[in-house]
Amino acid sequence: MITKDQIVRWLEKTAAVLQANKTYLTDLDSAIGDADHGTNMDRGFKKVMEKLPTVFDNDIGNILKTTGMTLISSVGGASGPLYGTFFMRSGMAIAAKEELSDEDLFTLLQAGVEGILQRGRPNLEDKTMYDAWAPALEAMQGALSTGMGTVEVLETAVAAAEQGMKNTIPLQARKGRASYLGERSIGHQDPGATSSYLMLNALLETVKE
Amino acid sequence: MITKDQIVRWLEKTAAVLQANKTYLTDLDSAIGDADHGTNMDRGFKKVMEKLPTVFDNDIGNILKTTGMTLISSVGGASGPLYGTFFMRSGMAIAAKEELSDEDLFTLLQAGVEGILQRGRPNLEDKTMYDAWAPALEAMQGALSTGMGTVEVLETAVAAAEQGMKNTIPLQARKGRASYLGERSIGHQDPGATSSYLMLNALLETVKE
Amino acid sequence: MKKLINDVDNVVREQLEGMALAHPDAIKVNYDPYFVVRADAPVEGKVAIISGGGSGHEPMHGGFVGMGMLDGACPGEVFTSPTPDQMYECAKAVDSGAGVLFLVKNYTGDVLNFETAAELAYADGIKVQSILVDDDAAVKDSLYTAGRRGVGATVIVEKIVGAAAEAGYNLGQCADLARKVNMYGRSIGIALTSCTVPAAGKPTFDLGDGEFEFGIGIHGEPGRQRLPMKSVDEITAMMAAAVLDDEAYSRTVREWDNEEGTWFDKELTDEPFKSGDSVIAFVNSMGGTPVSELYAVYRKLAAECEARGVKIARNLIGPYITSLEMQGCSITLVKTDDEILKFWDAPVNTLGLRWGA
Amino acid sequence: MKKLINDVDNVVREQLEGMALAHPDAIKVNYDPYFVVRADAPVEGKVAIISGGGSGHEPMHGGFVGMGMLDGACPGEVFTSPTPDQMYECAKAVDSGAGVLFLVKNYTGDVLNFETAAELAYADGIKVQSILVDDDAAVKDSLYTAGRRGVGATVIVEKIVGAAAEAGYNLGQCADLARKVNMYGRSIGIALTSCTVPAAGKPTFDLGDGEFEFGIGIHGEPGRQRLPMKSVDEITAMMAAAVLDDEAYSRTVREWDNEEGTWFDKELTDEPFKSGDSVIAFVNSMGGTPVSELYAVYRKLAAECEARGVKIARNLIGPYITSLEMQGCSITLVKTDDEILKFWDAPVNTLGLRWGA
Ligand SMILES: Nc1ncnc2c1ncn2[C@@H]1O[C@H](COP(=O)(O)OP(=O)(O)O)[C@@H](O)[C@H]1O
Ligand SMILES: Nc1ncnc2c1ncn2[C@@H]1O[C@H](COP(=O)(O)OP(=O)(O)O)[C@@H](O)[C@H]1O
Ligand SMILES: [Mg+2]
Ligand SMILES: [Mg+2]
Ligand SMILES: [Mg+2]
Ligand SMILES: [Mg+2]
To answer: At a CB cut-off of 8 Å and minimum separation 6, what does B16 contact?
Structure first.
């Protein structure tokens, strides 16, 4: 069971982690993009933190949708609509809930990733954030079917996301700004895959607390 | 007596001297102007050399007027109209002559300087080419009245022009581009006074040959 | 970094304030969120044309708002796509009921944000269509990249479609014309220097005194190749070849189906230029290159076109789609026909482009 | 030095060739000697307006040739005054019998060459007058210098007098109006970077990353003061003060007496701006500064004018009188009255300035 309180703390932890990793993410984006991914994500989640208190009393679905709306209207760039859609769709998927079962949590994440897919149309190994999410969802689904507890399920998912993120290093980008670099994009870790991993890891840590 | 041939050789020598001193004059102009006086004068006298053969058969007045016209239409900047007027007026002053007495030579130069005065309105010590010509004319007039020969008369004039040129060094410019520098123009020799001295000296050397 | 700015965080805002102060008769500026609309918006019965993108490309897009061109422009932070709420609010401000056409430069950020905006506007009952501009011949394939970037043709598309909207074209006709003009256009850009994004504080890339970048975009990014510096004739010949001799280019674009309320895919192929074509030739400064040098580029470009039997019917020469103070230029050629020429010649009255009015 | 040029010796020529190729409907270019005239010159019954000066200030002056502005422009080498034969031949090409007005920027070279040209034209039976533009408030006195340089006000004078000539003003009326507009105008310029004259091959001066030049001319020369870099608000406040708070300025100018065929001296005094004045505010880029930054300058300038009770009636913002690729800007304020405003608003159709046509 995941409470509304935990969801709020997840968002808070994500904001803190993205702020702490702002320069790291921007540096990753300098190598194969336009050096703004850290700034973009930090700006967006700062806004989310401003908005959060106003929707605190609403249900989880509503909180996540507000998060999505806020990201969409403050991040810009490619990651703004992608993460924005992620949270909008995840909020819609578990609308009106005040707490979540492990299956709900999976539904939530899956719907979010579905949103990324529809918006950005990434394929596996295009060197995007999807390369972190796709293995994470698959691992989570497997873990759920074996009857693990919430923490274990998420640990499995985070480990897969981390591996997916690292797997982006040797890839040549085929989506987003990095794709214009052609072969020069090889050898660098994708910034969006990295922020996605950080976000999922923040969820695990929240649940472990 | 100065022959038409000598006048032609004077112009040729001037062209050669200005070419040889192109960088020197431009360097002087870098310090207090816009670094083009040498280029300007060299461009102008190159054109004069091209034109000269076409007027070779004309009288001295005509040759000088053509020189003036050519300078005017090829030099530009401040020195173009000033030297152009100098030669136009000097040509007009001794119109139709095929050879010149020493008095004619004085008349010629005086009319030329008169042209510079009318065009540029320099005052003495404004730090311009006039600071070379004014003492030269005065010295020449004095020398003529003592009955010296052509070479001596010109030697006196050239010495005065050289002194006048050097006297521009401590002056603060009040005319032309250098005047915008205010006190920063002090300590530099005026490029136009320098080219004027070189021109008069070329006349002396021609006569001495 | 030396720029005429105050705090780097307020650069876009203060520049918009200056524009608003200077041109109250021409434009209205909205600050929360940022967008610029013509002073007389919404124009009754007219399809509204909206574009937008990162700032730093001035006069594009804010300078193209006005009679005969854009109804609204959405400026993002410098070189960063604007957000959907800007486009959505802008659409609400300019729509007169005849619908809104989004002209979107093909960068993932711009594309995704405009898509969200289109959905929001549609959900609000606004008729909306969205056309991509993707003309940068420096990008060779669309299979392994995000596709050709939108560069110089944007200006031409905005001018021509703006005139058509003014002349009473409906939304579908405007969209069809925009798609056609884009498919008729190709561009290539070069840089002699980098530019400096205010928030970054240092030049985006370093370029030696004897080098230039060939095949750049418009965001101060390095280009396809770094080459030893050449004469304007040599550089222009290379650029002209990259555009005039470019092969057919195919890709899939997403467009909005206003009946169904969904996105659908469309296969498009741009045909190469051929002898007998008539073109609009657009020689553009990246910002820091003076217009005098653009004329030297035009001189050689005209010769290269003539050598291939391509006739320059119209031209546009100056800084219209820039990358801050970057030195360099781009060439855009757009094939023309009677419809295109008519709307090119039609009056336009904006801060950045004006004739016949 | 990196520029879009071929041989440094042919820079001006090739740029003129490009202009001629690009705009055969608007202008005609003469190559020996260099001058640019409107395609429909001479215009029957109209006073012809001619200006000229060194190249490198584009679009001025060639870009201001056309209906409602100049009839002819004489480009010199880069930053070097043109020669009298250019001006004289140009005068012959544009004179329709109504006479020719020379608009001359106050630099010794320009002044002397235009004087010679006026004499040549007069000798040929052309009615001619000549008016100096000397608006650079960075130059304090006229007694110990060659007087204030002609800078930004040149553009405003050319526009307004061009419109008056189009409206049928005779030669004397055009000259009087030109003199008045010049006397109503003051300018000040700043530079963030130097520019590079092609023939010189290296920057004219070096400026540290933390410095700017205050009180520059338009030939890439250093200014009155070198100062530590400041914010746009601080820089604009200094510039605004240099113009708005400048004292009365007196000098003697030479004008041509067309009856007598001689030059005569004229004493002129420009009065300071005062509360209640209405002005045209012109914020100009020296070339390399993007128009977006000019809006930040305008924003502060508007506040400075308002603080002094000076009303901005019209404005012009962009690169109009430049120094090659120099980064920096200038501010020009010209007091207006009904006559000036009427001719400012009148249609103009040139490559560099266009409205109402
Ligand atoms: N089409 C796409 N689908 C999924 N993710 C994408 C796509 N394009 C880009 N991304 C992700 O977005 C990240 C870049 O985000 P960001 O730097 O904030 O935006 P921008 O590229 O517009 O500057 C990339 O690292 C990549 O993970
Ligand atoms: N008003 C003037 N009267 C006489 N000589 C002048 C005047 N103004 C400038 N000069 C002379 O012209 C010289 C500069 O010539 P030059 O460099 O060729 O022209 P510019 O200053 O236009 O670049 C100065 O050194 C000075 O001797
Ligand atoms: Mg990025
Ligand atoms: Mg000089
Ligand atoms: Mg970005
Ligand atoms: Mg000069």
So the answer is: none
**Chain C residue nearest residue A69, CA to CA:** C85
Q: What is the pLDDT of residues A124-165, one digit of tens each?
A: 999 999 999 999 999 999 999 998 999 999 999 999 999 999
Give the rounded distance of the alpha carbon of C288 from its chain centre: 18
- Closest Cα to atom 4, ligand 2: which residue? B120
Q: Give the DSSP letter string of chain B.
A: -EEHHHHHHHHHHHHHHHHHTHHHHHHHHHHHS-S-HHHHHHHHHHHHHHHHHHHTTS-HHHHHHHHHHHHHTT--TTHHHHHHHHHHHHHHHTTT-SEE-HHHHHHHHHHHHHHHHHHH-PPTTSSSTHHHHHHHHHHHHHHHHTT--HHHHHHHHHHHHHHHHHHTTTPPP-SSGGGGGGGGGTTS--HHHHHHHHHHHHHHHHHH-
CATH number of the domain that residue A177 is part of: 1.25.40.340
pLDDT digits (tens, 9 = 90+) for A78-101: 999 999 999 999 999 998 899 999
| D62-109 pLDDT per residue, tens | 999 999 999 999 999 999 999 999 999 999 999 999 999 999 999 999
The 8-class DSSP code of residue A99 comes to: E
Domain count, chain B: 1
As a whole number of angstroms, the distance between CA B65 and CA B192 comes to 21
**C188-244+274-335, what's its fold?**
Hypothetical Protein Tm841; Chain: A;domain 3 (3.30.1180)
Cα Dmax for chain A:
49
Task: Check if C219 is active-site.
Answer: yes
> pLDDT tier at D334 (50, 70, 90 boundaries)?
very high
Instruction: Please report which residue ranges of D229-336 form alpha helices under DSSP H.
Output: 232-244, 291-307
Q: What is the C-alpha separation between C81 and C84, in angstroms, rounded? A: 9
Q: Taken in order C196, C202, C205, C207, is the CA torsion positive or negative?
A: positive
CA C324 to CA C2: how far, in whole Å?
A: 12
- The alpha-helical segments, DSSP class H, found in D133-191 are 153-166, 171-183
Domain covering D11-184+249-272: architecture: 3-Layer(aba) Sandwich (3.40)
How buried is C173 (Cβ within 10 angstroms: 0-12 exposed, 13-18 middle, 19+ buried)?
middle
**Would you call the peptide bond into D23 cis, given omega within 30 degrees of 0 as the criterion?**
no
Strand (E) or helix (H) holding C38? strand C34-38
Q: Are A68 and A87 in contact (CB under 8 A)?
A: yes
Query: Whole-number mean pLDDT of chain B?
Result: 95
* Ligand 1 neighbour A129 (Cβ under 6 A): yes
Q: Do domains C11-184+249-272 and C188-244+274-335 have the same CATH topology?
A: no
* Whether C61 is catalytic: no
Token pair of B23 as six digits:
């960088």
**Residues in chain C with pLDDT values less than 50:** none
- Residue A146 in tokens: 């074996």
- Beta strands D262-270 and D128-133 are unpaired
Q: Which domain holds residue B74?
A: 2-208
Q: If you ran DSSP here, which 8-state letter would residue A209 be given? A: -
Q: What are phi and psi of B66, to 5 degrees?
A: -60, -40
Quote ipTM for the complex: 0.93
CA distance B132 to chain D (A): 19
For residue B122 and ligand 2, the question of a CB distance below 6 A is answered with yes
Distance CA C341, CA D279 (A): 39
Rounded Cα gap, residues B183 and B179, in angstroms: 9
Closest residue in chain D to residue B116, using alpha carbons only = D112
- Rounded CA-CA distance A191/A168 in Å is 10
Q: Under DSSP, is residue A17 helix (H, G, I), strand (E, B) or coil?
A: helix
Give the residue among A110, A56, A100, A83 at the shortest CA–CA distance from A193: A83
Q: Check if the beta carbon of residue C333 is closer than 8 Å to that of residue C306.
A: no
Nearest beta carbon to residue A81 from set C79, C113, C199: C113
Q: Do D137 and D148 touch, CB atoms closer than 8 A?
A: yes
Rounded to two decimals, the pTM is: 0.95
Between the alpha carbon of residue C258 and those of residues A121, A140, B51, the distances in Å are 21, 38, 77
